[in-house]
Write the structure tokens for this entry.
Amino acid sequence: MNPLLYPAVIKQGKQLDFHEFSDSAASATFGFPAVRSEKFPSLSEQIQKSFLLLQGSSLNSLIHKMMKSLQLILQQDFLSSHEAGRDCEWRQEGLYEFCERVMFEATLVTLYGRPPNINTDVGANMHRKSWINTLRDNFKKFDAMFPLLIAGIPISLLGRTKSIRKQINQVFHPQSMAEWTSPSGFIQARVDIFQQYDTLKDLDKAVGNTIPACFWCLYHLLSNPQAVSTVQEEIMRMFGDKDPESILNQDTPTREQLEKLIHLESAINESLRLSSVSMNIRVVQKDFCLHLNPQYSVCVRKGDIVALYPQSTHLDPDIYPNPQQYQFDRFVENGMVKTNFFKANQKIRYYHMPFGSGATMCPGRFFAINELKQFLCITLMMCDMELVAVRQHLSRLPTIDPNTRTLLLCGYPNVGKSSFINKVTRADVDVQPYAFTTKSLFVGHMDYKYLRWQVVDTPGILDHPLEERNTIEMQAITALAHLRAAVLYPLIVVANKCDVKKISELSEENQKIFADLLSEGIPVIETSTLTEEGVMQVKTEACDRLLVHRVDTKMKGKKVHDILNRLHLAMPTKRDDKERPAFIPEGAVLRRKTMEVDAPKRKLEKDLEMELGDDYTLDLQKYWDLMNADEKHDKIPEIWEGHNIADYIDPEIMKRLAELEKEEELREQAGEYDSNEESEDEEMQEIRHLAKQIREKKKLKILESREKDVQGPRMPRTAKKVDRAVLEKEMQELGLDMTEKDGSHYVQQARRSRSLVQKRKREASVLPTSRTRSQSASKQPRDQSGVRDAKMMKKVKTMMKSSQKGMNRQGRKGESDRHVFDLKPKHLLAGKRKSGSTSRR
């Protein structure tokens, strides 16, 4: 979904409920009833009040307590040796394990207080560590099953997960929590609210997301030295440029001081943007139409799930340029927190949503951000940390065979080592115009003199002592240590980029350096990987020298004598003076003589094409073998439906067409096709005039009919009774003389159709007994009886049409139709039993 449409979804708090899904998921995971069920009536207000204990003045006390916990844990862990006057040694530990160990214990002590019978003296330190480690291990095992429990998998199918959850629940049960010392106000309020249920859910919320966030923040910072330097300078300004060792013993920073760490907060937000995989899920409470914008709406049904994926916004290149790249100062602008982000020239309201959005945002987000800041402050200031991913890095290193023929490329950064390996092998090493593009070893393979060679590209080595080189620079030395020492020699000095400046163009002092190398017998070759000048010379020289050196080394070894004893080189001697020339068969000699005769060669089509050029046309019928050679180029008849098309073609058709066109042109010039209206006689003119009147009368009738706007059914003209007076009137309007109508045909037909029986004289006091036309005409139509006027008649007809709609809608279904209802549909009832098996799913 477009991030610009998020506000339309988030503001629908009543129709799109967040708590229904979260309560059901929490119930399935932690094993207690949903908060908003009958077990917990009217708890919403109390729960919201408990969340206030994570904000304001209560948050200040939590921040102070969290910093003290972090100081105590780090002092008792690996800083104690430094305080005793000994130099701290480097310790290697998994970055995630370190964050998990420190943050779990610090968060546990800050929120829940100290467990019973565990104090802070030195004698109880080991017992405290063991108890917390056991609790942490159980929580890790339970947290690993968390996705499966959310998915609805029964806990009984997940091995020991149920027993582990039971052990953790016993630790955080209200009866056990009563013996803990110094719990936070938030946890105490939660215990009072839920009474008989444990607070494992709160522990999961506190550390389940904080530990991964700490890991990613620290990882991204350590991967970016500039970010570490900027954040450390900002932290030192906050502490007043004091000695880092005194930070553990001084007063903790206040909330206001932590809020001033803008670059640190930006680094945290950037890590959350890249690593957060949160999902905002809401359940539709009733059927309604969700209006996302004036042009776009979505109709949703009750029970549907509407999910927002913040990750699609966090990785949108229109909002965040280079979204996959970590930029620690992305949320800083002009020394202040940046809050203006745009997409399609529109400001986005919800651009950063690791804690959710709207009224359902995580209530503990302020505490989470501040504890991340505290952890990073004390870790970056008190510890020298480096990323050492040895196992992962070695698994990514290419396979190097130490026994095969190897060319090793060593030198300063950005001198063309990667460009050289790309030229001589198929290795596709990244080449960039800045130093330290190559941070690892790369291997390419090539063939020379039918032998397989491997070329190793190493990171650049700076001009400082071996002890001061970093891990990347030491990889070149490490590669040499794993290869045979003979690979170091012979040595070839390659002066690359000769297209920019040659050795002869250098100063005398620099030329002397190469002269000294040549005097020592070390070859110097000028190359350019851009123009490929000297590249093949270096390859040939290096391979030849190494081959000679390998042969010499093997010849000086002990195994060479065993090999030479098994080899015998035969050297034949001359037996006599008899000549023994090579034997050549006579047939071969004859063929050779035939080939030497200058016989004319046959011209091929290829030769003809080369001679004629554009005038050449391919003749496919030239070499046809026919009895009559004159028939080679005869046209093949084209047959269509059994007829030869050539029989129907007139060879003079174009000539005849030209004659016809000329004749037609002469006819037009003579005026043969000109219309002569004056030649019409009087009768024809009258007919045309009458036709014109008929057309005008027809148009007039159409207009009169439209003005009447008759909505009722119309009787067809053929069904109407023809009135004699109307007929005579219409004929007179059309111009027909109706004066002598008595002798006309229609009058005679009317007389014949009339009854010849003498009608009885009608008397006023006696009603006619026969059903004649006059009697039926005197009655009022049934559909008009009881109707007051025309207005009421129109309303009655409208009501009649409305009552007919239902019957018309279900016109194919009648009351007498038989319908058998399926009261137990198979697909809804089969396979729904809790236990046992069934034959259909």
User: Anything to note?
Assistant: The chain has 33 helices and 16 strands. The longest strand covers residues 442-448. The mean pLDDT is 79. Residues 319 and 343 are 6 Å apart (CA to CA).
